[in-house]
Design brief:
globular, single chain, mainly alpha, 79 residues
């Protein structure tokens, strides 16, 4: 899907990316909450096939659960 200007709305997002978009959070906010680098968060949010290491996954899920308590890893990652 393209916007009138040909950019913006065709952005591919992972389930984590869609989740933070839906809840009004930025990648920077997730990065700070999870204590994970901004580059890693960017990859997690924009690459639907990326699965982070176990340690990073644990930090991400802890941050996500601060927003949605019943969140499960399987809801966001194919592990």
């Amino acid at each position: 899907m393209f916007s009138i200007f040909g950019f913006g709305s065709s952005k591919k997002r992972s389930r984590i990316g869609k989740f933070i978009d839906k809840h009004g959070y930025s990648q920077e906010q997730l990065s700070q909450a999870a204590k994970v680098s901004r580059n890693t968060i960017s990859r997690i949010c924009n690459d639907p096939d990326y699965v982070p290491s176990a340690g990073v996954l644990k930090k991400i899920m802890k941050a996500i659960r601060s927003i949605k308590e019943d969140a499960k890893v399987d809801d966001y990652f194919d592990v």
